[in-house]
Amino acid sequence: MKLLKEKMLKEGIVLSDSVLKVDSFLNHQMDPQLINEIGREFANRFESESITKVLTIESSGIGPGILAAMYLQVPLVFARKRKSLTLTDNLLTSSVYSFTKQENYEISVSNRFLSSQDKVLIIDDFLANGQAALGLIDLIQKAGSDLAGVGIVIEKGFQDGGKVLRERGIRVESLAIIHSLKEGNIQFAEQAME
Ligand code: G4P
Ligand code: NA
Ligand code: NA
Known about the structure:
Elements: H1 2-11, E1 13-14, E2 20-21, H2 32-46, E3 53-57, H3 62-72, E4 76-79, E5 91-98, E6 103-110, E7 119-127, H4 131-143, E8 146-156, H5 161-167, E9 172-180, E10 187-188
Parallel strand pairs: 3-4, 3-7, 7-8, 8-9
Antiparallel strand pairs: 1-2, 5-6, 9-10
Bound molecules: guanosine-5',3'-tetraphosphate and sodium ion (2 copies).
Function: Converts the preformed base xanthine, a product of nucleic acid breakdown, to xanthosine 5'-monophosphate (XMP), so it can be reused for RNA or DNA synthesis.
GO molecular function: xanthine phosphoribosyltransferase activity
Subcellular location: Cytoplasm
């Protein structure tokens, strides 16, 4: 997606060979026009899939997720990372390992909002090692829902997540795929180039 890649080149800050900071438009301050186009693009790519729910994980997936859900005209459900005061029973939970933090955390959704009638599109901001996506897929399986695919804003192609998911036969649509962040430069992968 050209607009996204231009924004990444203009405002992204390469923190290391493996981490890109995008807090001026996606992870802290958010650009509504750009995220609107991101949501529209996900909806276009998955429009023939009869999706009934979009599923993401708090917090950075919620922006792209709500816009994708709006264009698909279905609800967005976001998995929670912390226990909620009011969301207490009927929880489906899964354990996710964070490579960055080197610890496990629990994610959960209420079984009231995911069922065997649902066909679910997962949306997230980043795909790195894929642990968050695998946790969401586990929640979908526990709910008995079908998985339509995974939509990712920025995939780090030099990490394993994309491979792990695609090898399972899962459709992964990434709007930008980073081939390398070496020497402070963002190099995009061929398959993501327009
Ligand atoms: P994994 O699921 O692929 O294993 O991811 P990992 O634990 O390595 O990532 C932890 C967090 O860091 C996730 O956000 C993920 O989206 C984010 N992340 C991973 N790589 C990058 C990167 O290069 N740049 C940026 N900006 N973020 C990255 P989170 O902790 O769940 O936070 P939230 O922002 O969704 O609240
Ligand atoms: Na995220
Ligand atoms: Na994040």
